Amino acid sequence: MSASPSSIRRLDEAVVNRIAAGEVIQRPVNAIKEMIENSLDAKSTTIQVVAKQGGLKLIQIQDNGTGIRKEDMAIVCERFTTSKLEKFEDLTSIRTYGFRGEALASISHVAHVTITTRTADSQCAYKAHYSDGQLTSSKPGASAEPKPCAGNKGTQITVEDLFYNIPIRRQALRGGSEEYAKIVDMISKYAIHNSGISFTLKKQGEAVADVRTATGSAYLDNIKLIYGATIARELLDIKHESEKLAFKLSGYVTSANFSTKKFLFVLFINHRLVDCVSLKRGIESVYVAYLPKHSHPFVYLSLEVAPQNVDVNVHPTKHEVHFLHEDAIVEAIQEVIKDRLVNCNESRTFTQRTLKPGSLVSIPSEMTSKAPAKTSTARVYDHHLVRTDSREQTLDAFLPPASCSQEGDLSTEVSQSGGASETRRLAAESTHSRATKTTSQDDKETEVMEVDELPEKSRSPVKRKRDVEEEGGEEKLSGLNQPHRRLIRLRSILNLRQAVMDAEHQGLRQLFQNYKFVGCCTDNMALMQHQTKLYIVNFSRLSKELFYQLLLFDFGNFGSLKLSEPPLISELALLSLEQPDSEWTPENETKEEVAEYVMDLLGSKADMLQDYFSIEITDEGRLVSIPWLLDRYVPDLAGLPSLVMHLAMDVNWTSEEACFKSFSQAVGDFYQFKPTQEQIETEKQKEDSEDEPEDLPRSRCDIVGKGDQGDRVTLSDNEDGWKWIVEHVLFPAFRSILLPSKKLTEDGTIVEVANLPDLYKVFERC
Question: Model confidence over 153-191: pLDDT tens digits?
Fold first, then answer.
């Protein structure tokens, strides 16, 4: 029994439209391409694109073109509605991107579309929502007619939930990252070809755009901006015109000195981004004779062919075109590129690796009784070589020269008297202190530092790693002749020191002892090298740990930084309470009462503070001095108000060990190095200009040791920038003093960012 034939039925219109839409809009990049071409047809000079989840969740395109008339908004998303074509014969002379009237219709059948548009002669913009090619209301029961709203001249199209009604198509797409990469590639190519138009592409919520070109920019500028300066340096311009074949050619190709792993081919035919397999293969065959195997060039071509010789209606996505005399035109383009490469081939650039000293290492073979000793050589490869010469350049060598520079380190002169004392003298021209000012309640800036004297004994802290040892409850100072240094027998301090030494990480200690300083990359991060690895270090956070350890290991042996105009502690406390981040509330006590409490508390501890920490407080409650922790370093005295408040409120004054620990943490936080905005701006000015800067205000401070015995020196501010302090003061202190713990790698203070052997593996694959 034969089966009866199935009846033929007319497909529902919604099914037909959805099938057609799936052919035109295959993925988010197709939808964006169609809408960009509509913006270009509308004479836009600025096109902004925003995408979310690779365009699957949201696509928004805004331009400043001619806009859409209100009368046309009712049918703008219907199929086969267009302003660019009237009869079929017009296809032979089409000069616009769109012509079939299917783009917006197809998008509206697979997504939710919102259009906001305004023409030049309209008093306001109009907004409408579309679904399945028809106007739809934004809310149930509301009118679907376009509604007036505020808006700029041009059109904004928002596409949401692409392929929401075709789940199989949505699942087939690999992911938002891959789709977004395709969008970036497509918009980059349109930005290069349309060099006079500004293109912007970014992800929703991101502040930095992935593609951004300026209005009126040149082709070369856009290529350099998008594909990099390496390509731009090797570009050769090509131009050709043939009346016989009726085509005109212009563009840029890379010379034989450039090659890449992937063929970067940007082709526009009659200003339409297309693919042409025959032309691509023809160009690759030309470069075979010039480039290494498996290497490819960058090629951007703009081909203008007589419209009557081009068939643009080949594929629904319009990414393919056919044109007459294709083989002859491809051959002509090959000859043009070949001639251009031959004419510029007088010089070639090759990478040469020189053998560095010591790269051949003699390795004696094992001695045997039967055979004589043999010596063989083994090569040390480049990715195992490290910088070992201290004279090599840092990042600062590649910056514009600063107006002020320092040569060498701090000059010192050591003299001994009867073998019982050691004195370090500082040269005035090679010392450094930081400008610091504090503001009184009358908003007057007062100078608070004045330079004076230096302690008689050495201020270099005791060298770490078991230099401090307990023998019979006393400290043993190894390697230093410091007879005047006080011996600390307090069990609490010894316990805190021991905790620091027990937490020391040997690997990090080795890293800091043998580092190479590379340079500062931000106002709190610096790069340093250790062997074949590159690390980024948060020197601001690291300096806090450094000063905390200095406060423990130099306990009771500090010099003093005396303030030229000692402020009242109560006034400093009031300044702290005026800060926006102050936790003071008027519910309990007034600011004056809190300030009085702070002054009374610290005043009652004055003897201990001066004896242990060189913090001198007068009977009237004035702060006279603070401890001197590190050579050539003076903290930012603008933080004094916060310091006195932390000492009064955050220090545990009831337990000895807890008191010294919390006290050292509070003072270490005050000494933590944080470049001020003034220092950052001054550093930028120095780097931007080679001229001598105007004289800046100088601050002074008194530096005295125990017993106020010492030599008078002047520490002038602003002789060096904050980067100089980081390189020549902080990092040497990290090398000689700091006992780093493992937590520094866990909290992001020290992070490995590059490893030379691993980088070589990457380049070997290239």
Answer: 999 999 999 988 888 888 888 778 899 999 999 999 999
Contact 516, 530 (CB under 8 A): yes
Nearest to 99 by CA among 41, 47, 154: 41
Burial of 6 (0-12, 13-18, 19+ CB in 10 A): exposed
Average pLDDT, the chain: 75
The pTM of this model reads 0.46
The DSSP symbol for 456 reads S
- pLDDT tens string 194-245: 988 999 999 999 989 999 999 888 999 999 999 988 898 889 999 999 988 8
Contact (CB, 8 A) for 720 and 406 = yes
Residues sharing a CB contact under 8 Å with residue 763, sequence separation 6 or more, in sequence order: none
pLDDT, tens digit, for every residue of 387-421?
Answer: 555 555 566 655 554 443 333 333 323 232 333 22
CB neighbour class for 335 (10 Å; exposed up to 12, middle 13-18, buried from 19): exposed
The separation between CA 296 and the C-alpha centre of its own chain, rounded to angstroms, equals 30
CB 209 within 8 A of CB 202: yes
Domains with residue ranges and CATH for the chain: 13-215 (3.30.565.10), 228-343 (3.30.230.10), 412-754 (no CATH)
Cβ neighbours, 10 Å, residue 504 = 16
Three-state DSSP class for 116?
strand
For the record, the structure tokens of 654 come out as: 């009831």
- The model's confidence at residue 455, banded by pLDDT at 50, 70 and 90, is very low
Strand partners, 157: 61, 115
Backbone angles phi, psi at 106, to 5 degrees: -65, -40
The structure tokens 């010379």 sit at 255
**C-alpha to C-alpha distance for 422 and 414, rounded to whole angstroms:** 6
Residue 45 pLDDT more than 70? yes
Which residue is it, tokens 């190479």? 516
Closest CA to 445 of 699, 722, 617: 699
DSSP 217-230: --HHHHHHHHH-HH
Which spans in 111-236 are helix H?
Answer: 167-172, 176-193, 219-227, 229-233
Q: Is 154 left (phi over 0), alpha (psi -120 to 50) or beta?
A: left
Q: Is 216 left (phi over 0), alpha (psi -120 to 50) or beta?
A: left
At position 476, the amino acid (one-letter code) is K
Strand 422-426 and strand 412-416: pairing? antiparallel
